[in-house]
Structure formats: C-alpha cells, structure tokens
Amino acid sequence: SLIIYVAQNGKAQFKQIQAAINSIDSTINKKVIIKIAAGTYNEKIFLKKSHITFVGAGIDKTIITQAIARDIWRCDHNDDWGVATFNVDSCSDIVFSGITIRNDYGFLNIKDQVLPCANDSTGLKTIKSSGHQMAFRSFMATKLKFIECRFVAFGGDTMSPWNTTDGMFYFKDCVLEGGVDFYCPRGWAYAENCTFTTHTGPAAIWHDGSLNEDSKTVLVNCSFKGYDGFKLGRYHRDASFYLINCHFPANMSDEDIYIVPTTNTIQWGRRVYYYNCDKENVISGFFKNNIETALGHPTGDQVNVHWVFKNNWDPLAN
Prior knowledge:
about 325 residues, ten-stranded parallel β-sheet, seven-stranded parallel β-sheet, 4 helices
C-alpha cells in the first residue's frame, strides 16, 4: 500500500486533503491510504479515484467542513458536482474511518435569505436554513464504507450516496445528523450501530430503490433521536426499508414511514419492514414485527451484510 500523510502542522507530505488526492496517479494499481491528522480542514473535496482509504485521527478529531446551500450552488451550476463538503463520483472501494464531515450552512445562517439566482425564473430564490445541505454526496460510485464517522448538517440530505444502478454503501458506528431525508441512500445500503439525530424537517430517513426490486436500505441496531414529534422516515420513489433491532425515543412521532404525494409510479408497493424494534415507554406500535411479509420471507437473523449485498461485495473483508 501507498501511505500519504496530511497534517496542518509538522512534516506531513500535504497540508490539504485535496492536494493529497490530486497527487495520486490514477493508473496506480495498489491501495492508497491517506492518513489525516487531527484538525479542522476547511476544504471542499472532490474525488474521482478508486481504492482509497481515508483514516482520520478519530471521530470529531479530524473534521472536514464547509458551509454550502445546495439552492445557492444550483443558481450558478447545472448539476450537483460541488454541492457537498465531500463530493465523490466515478469510483469504487473507498473507505472512511475516524472522520467528521460537516456542512455548516444551516448552523451559520439561521434566518432564511432571498438572493439573486440566475437559474430561477424570477431571478430570486429564498434560501432556507433547513434546505438541502449535503455533507457527503456521491454520484456513480459504489462500495463505499464508513466506519466511526460523523456526518452533520442542519438541513436536508446530509448523507446522500446516490446510485440506483449499482450503489452499495456500508455504515458502522457512525453518527448522522440533519434535516429532512438526511440519510437518503439510493441503491443498497446497510447501517449498523449508528445514531441518527433529526434537527429539523418532516422525516429522518429516505430511500430510492426504483431501478431494482432487490435494492434496499437496512438499519440494524440503530438509535434515533430528535426534536419533539420528529418522524422516522418517508419516500416518494420505490423504496424498501428494513429496520432490525432499532431503538426509537418516546418523543418520536407515532407515525410510520410514509409515502409523500408523488407522480412517480410505485412499482412494487409499500415495503417497510420491522423486526424486534422498540420505542421508549411504548409496548407496541407501527414498528411491530412484519419482516416475514417481505419478499423471500426472511427472518430477522438472516438480515445481515451478506444477505443485503449477496456476492457483489463483502464490506467486512479486509
């Protein structure tokens, strides 16, 4: 493996993460490890290279941060490339560990703003503090792995790994925070031992599995918290949710994951499945066991990474 060191002080090869990425020869045929020392890195990152592992000094020790409102970005740009703190495309086999990635726009801009917007028919756009704010955004990327990382925004779409074709995403021991749909994978996603905190917005989790009936988002032994009355999740495209051994707080709404009014055709019907979940101070509710009604009639014990990704990927392999 090739190891590259990044630190803001000392004798590291690079002071900036982007410079370390840019230094990698795209034809290199071995794994690259980028070790990032503790510190706050005010960088917007772009990545289009595969087989890279980013190793931070620890969750909340190595912090990558920007303040970006997607609605502002799209006023002058025709796509989302650059809308997030960390932007990823056209690559695979990327690992993140011990890193916090933040989009601080909504924390820094508490009040809504009306700004000039070239791409808006009126020439003006209202930018909400709770609007789309991606900390992480991926396009045609797959086999992305996140271990002991934190992803933070005040607004929506904090963690946006988007690839309905063949996107595969694995999260373990991560913390995710944001507004509406702040965890919104497209394709196949598996999260275990993660914590989800809702700051604002009508729902925490979302999924798009509209290109393949087998695609799904699975959450195992995950915990949720947020403002009083926050809702668990929603969807407006074909989605498939599996929640296994998950924990809900007493102040979460009793409303199940719901469909938003949509013109999209929902090909495969409602697919929201629970197994052995609990809600503080509540004996039973919308989260009652129904996993046996899922396609193939799986048991709760069968739902693991190998069941989700099949032979396409093993995120537990070294």
